Amino acid sequence: MDGKTTVKYLQNYIKQKDFHPELLKDYFLKLSEEVGELSRAIRKNLKAESIDKIQGTIDEELWDVIYYAIAIANIYDIDLESVIKKKAEISQIKYPASVAFEDGR
């Protein structure tokens, strides 16, 4: 392993660990709750001092938001890597930028 975590890996990891389609509404409520916790952490500027001290910080809450977003994508069998690529193409047309999305990175 090269030390990089891919979206595909995260989707597989979360699907193996926590895949309960019957809990879709609960996953969405958790996502909403985590966004609120992230908002609080940002408002209070709670950045982790070290990787060992992330509890209640922006660092931790960002992961929680990503986790539940991916759990929802898994229920709908959405390949996020493909969606990210396509959305980057759409955004480049709508909001041209000098930095292009590089597929396969």
Which characteristics define this entry?
globular, Helix Hairpins, about 100 residues, about 60% helix, 4 helices, single chain, mainly alpha
Plain-language structure description:
The chain has 105 residues and is an all-alpha fold. The chain has one domain: Helix Hairpins (Orthogonal Bundle). Helices cover 61% and strands 0% of the residues. The protein has four helices and no strands. The chain has helices at 7-17, 24-43, 58-75, 80-94. Helix 1 (7-17) packs across helix 3 (58-75) and helix 2 runs antiparallel to helix 3 (58-75). The longest helix is centred in the first third of the chain and has 20 residues, at 24-43. The radius of gyration is 16 Å and the shape is globular. The relative contact order is 0.14.
Quick gist of this model?
Helix 2 runs antiparallel to helix 3 (58-75). The protein has four helices and no strands. The protein has 105 residues and is mostly helical.
Spell out the blueprint of helices and strands:
Layout: H1 7-17, H2 24-43, H3 58-75, H4 80-94
Helix pairs in contact: 1-3, 2-3
